[in-house]
């Protein structure tokens, strides 16, 4: 489902760009454009070169920016970047920032897209940091070719700190905000497996270098580092912000900020079939969450499902034993799980089910029992495979037709996600509780309800 209607209300790309006009204006765009029999002009969005040309043409057409986008670097999607800039405008309005604005872009990239947009659109002064030499070189060239050296400064970050390089020469430097589009993934495998097969294929082709997409610990650890360092530089930066690519990471970061009592707010960045999230926090005495009111109708939020579970035997009433019990149940259901965080009385996990293993459990147990009873009436030695009843695998007790159906069903289902969600296991009033939130999957929220019911029925 296209999410354009959920873009920021001031985003000019809520109305799709006129490709016919772009083709007439820019020869490079005309070369990659296609015209169908009705005269409609389009491009192949899965072609990285076509995406690169489209972005360059839009930057020139809408912002009069001449930007060189290297072939081996990320092609920035303008609607998404513009959403972020517009949200920062909203945040600054809370603090009545109408005078000169200074912003810090962490990891500015080869295009320096955020500083360029901020400078030409809002006349903000920007400093961008970068660790990669080639990206820094390309970003410097893009700033020079647009004659914006007086508004944008770039700094090479040679430290392991996120902010330190900015304040080495001037620890009195003041910023109104910082922004960051962090690497989302921990490694190549996580990058390749990041998209749910249950979701529609991405409309756009894949672009970006490992340097731009991967970092040790993934975006969760990177953003946590920003939060930790923000405590050091809270007198230098008014509003700290970052983009977040995974919803379960956003939940964890919000929990971190709540635990520290830090005022914060969040938002959604929607474009095409892509959703990202924005997280902002401040150490100033402002109720950010109350003052920053959404100026557009938000999508319906997922309401977590919460249930209380019975206690285990008295010697096992702690979060570690509850977690071990939950692991057993999830393994029984063949649900893939990953521990996101663990605190004193709380564990957060991401879960993915590739097969529906929880429906009709009573029927399956009844069939198995009947099959076992039937086998016990036969001789212990099976004339065909020479296995005794005790050695038989339960799957061998199914009828041939049901076994074949099961195998074929496995082949079909292993390619899709039935349920994906986030689970919080916690102790409240000496009782174990679970809170689960549905993210996506072909079984919908009903599938999540069924999993919870299975856990409840089998907890003891």
TrEMBL record:
UniProt-annotated stretches for the region Disordered: 370-406
Origin: domain of life: Eukaryota
GO molecular function: methyltransferase activity
EC code(s) of this entry: 2.1.1.-
GO biological process, one term: rRNA base methylation
Entries under Pfam families matching the protein: Methyltransf_10
Keyword S-adenosyl-L-methionine: yes
Biased composition (Basic and acidic residues): 379-389
GO terms for cellular component: nucleus
Record key words, sorted: Methyltransferase, S-adenosyl-L-methionine, Transferase
Class of the enzyme per the UniProt entry, highest EC level: transferase
Chain sites annotated for binding S-adenosyl-L-methionine: 81, 107, 130, 181
Keyword S-adenosyl-L-methionine: yes
InterPro entries: METTL16/PsiM, METTL16/RlmF, SAM-dependent_MTases_sf
Sequence similarity: Belongs to the methyltransferase superfamily. METTL16/RlmF family.
Protein name: U6 small nuclear RNA (adenine-(43)-N(6))-methyltransferase
Source organism phylogeny: Eukaryota, Metazoa, Ecdysozoa, Arthropoda, Hexapoda
